[in-house]
């Protein structure tokens, strides 16, 4: 079968995945699969603060550099995830960063890390998951250390620092929970759109929206109609759109693997049909690529104890119906 990276390219799209260093460097067959299928690679863990910064004045780029080299040697683009996130912070963070020094820590981190890969990054998730629909604030900005120390400005500060450090990377705001047709998602879409409008109107350097795409299968049908209008609104702001972390959580789907795989594949197909109808969508990336290694395994397990099957390849690296959905769509 033709690789996803090639079929995507014929349609002017990029296909890729996020994977981690441990699996990529230790499992040769997995590394081959990633190199065969992907035109763009993102480190799932290795550019987060807790991995990069073992101490407040130490940076360790070893793993991320190895992955950048892997990407380069296989003709893949490299994508940065992520400069600002409320999770994945090192232990020293809480006792070290405060209101007085927060801006310095934020800009110094971004200059150092984005500067390290300047000219080599396809795109950077500058800010990840800044919006939380449950909060009381009108702007729905999540309560993070950065918001508490610097106010909503922290997002502008981060994008400006990233643009200064790497003027060539596509600077992206990345978030989840805007994919499915749910009231909560509609609240979140509105808040994300307001944020993007605010950034654009102030001239903050942002060029893309990343939609994570952590989808979930449900015994009742899953719908993606409301996202269509949202994508159009985002595109009207002049932003590119990337699907950055696609997978389908099958935790609640039936036991039979073939039945489950078909349900998962339908969710991939239905979602891709809607998002690829929007010309601003340029990139589709999955979070992992084989069921052998999925972050969902460490979350809620299936009640029947079965292995989760959220990705395009099974645990033996055989393409699944979800792969077929991708291959037909991209
Ligand atoms: C996840 C990793 O896959 C896990 O291994 C880690 O324990 C927590 O982070 N959205 C994101 C990613 O933006 O950074 C998250 O990655 C998955 C959800």
UniProtKB/TrEMBL annotation:
* EC number, UniProt record: 3.2.1.8
What's one GO MF term for it?
A: endo-1,4-beta-xylanase activity
Which reactions are catalysed by this chain?
Endohydrolysis of (1->4)-beta-D-xylosidic linkages in xylans
Which stretches make up the GH10 domain? 1-329
Q: What class of enzyme is it?
A: hydrolase
Which GO terms fall under biological process for this protein? xylan catabolic process
Name the UniProt key words of this record, in alphabetical order: Carbohydrate metabolism, Glycosidase, Hydrolase, Polysaccharide degradation, Signal, Xylan degradation
UniProt-annotated catalytic positions: 245 (nucleophile)
**According to its UniProt record, which protein family does this protein belong to?**
Belongs to the glycosyl hydrolase 10 (cellulase F) family.
Q: What is this protein called?
A: Beta-xylanase
* Organism in which the protein naturally occurs: Gloeocapsopsis dulcis AAB1 = 1H9
Shown part of the complete sequence: 49 to 378 of 586
